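pls ignore typos typing on phone
pyridoxal-5'-phosphate + seq
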Amino acid sequence: MIISKFISNKNDTLLNAMEVINNNKHGVTFVVNNENKLCGVITDGDIRRALLNNHKLDEKIENILKNRFIYAYDDETYEELLVKKENKNRTIPIVNRDMEVVNFFEFKQKLYFPVAEPNLEGNEYKYLNDAFLSSWISSSGEYINKFEKEFSKYIGTKYGVATSNGTTALSLALAALDIKDGDEVILPDFTFAATINTVIHLNAKPVIVDIEKESWCIDPIEIEKAITPKTKAIIPVHIYGQPCNMEKIMDIAEKHNLFVIEDCAQAHGAKYGDKKIGSFGHISCFSFFGNKVITTGEGGMCLTDSEELDEKMRVLRDHGMSKTKRYWHEVVGYNFRMTNLQAAIGVAQLERIDTILENRKKYEQAYKNTLKEFNYITYQKSNLENREKITWLASILVDTPINRDALIVELKEIGIDARPFFYPLSVMEIYKDYLFSNKNSIELSKKGLNLPTYASLYKLDKIVENLEKVVENLEKK
Ligand SMILES: *Cc1c(COP(=O)(O)O)cnc(C)c1O
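k done
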């Protein structure tokens, strides 16, 4: 950015100043006198306030200059600059000792607390390096076998087929179950779009049903109502770490002869009864995206107890190529393979999954403790019969007098990244024709937000402290 783009003369008009501000897109102009020395700093907010105080656009900038303004010298240290940042000015002119503007310094609002961040402090680097040095960096290698074996063992299934991501895991599962044109697949209104997109890509028809008010998961009563002779499968999604009612869902599936594909992308380690979710459905799909419970960067896995489905998925994952006759294709397949590099990271993550889950839970508990006096903030239920949820991203529901979106904005201001809940699928133009029922999902989506939740605890105190302040202030507004 050329510094002249920031400069206006004190004898220019306010309109001129607005033009300068508009052109440099930094919301500020540095005002100089006739000797070209800095004599003020004007922001777009200053001009707005001046106009509201009856100043006119053709008045000289000089008329609204303040005596005091923030600037820095070009021989100041970075630390000295940081002190000036406290004054809230985002863009500060830098002058030489003759007060001539030579540069500017911008304090970019840095998100110190992203909503999620991977934690790679175990053996991740060691194994990744090992895979790299072995030169098995593509989609064969020991780490893939190991990751498939250990993850399926952790969840409690016989087989695991690693994929390039969680979405391709869903696509692979649907393809292996031969879901196709004309088939109906029942899924919840409240989920991430990957769940429904994969169904649509196969030309099958998604049927969107409502969630349970308490658990936020697909409602078995609605599933049963939505079943038609064309229904082939159900995709329960264990949303935000909460297990679906797997007993009821498996009963319904059995009664109507339907497949169940569990979408476990957000619930690694959650339990229904004494079994982990992901061990109930015909196939279950996990994601290891960077913000999930454990990560491989991008990555996913399909789990099953069926030898036949395992075999089918391995073939489909690898272009549909025959396992015994190279370059011979009997089905139209995909390339959905995971690399050995990803799997190496996955193996290391899995070694620490118990600690990771414990730490994530501590975020949720700390948020509950901190916000307990604000009774209009509520939580996902953690005591539902038979269900043992995990914490993926701690979720809260915000009700009046506080506005959810206002809270998100205020938190962003101080560097805490909070995310609104998913929109219900059924409110989006591209999905609305698939709606069966959505009442609870609409209600929930408006109120919810996810707060930062990490696998390590080192930022927790700081987040909690700031969160409490922000909520208190909002309440007073
Ligand atoms: C993340 C996610 C997926 C997709 O996983 P990717 O690895 O991002 O492709 C699918 N379903 C749900 C519910 C998810 O949260």
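Residues 165-167, 191-192, 194-195, 237, 263, 265-266, 287, 289, 300 surround pyridoxal-5'-phosphate (CB under 6 Å). The longest helix spans residues 353-370. more later
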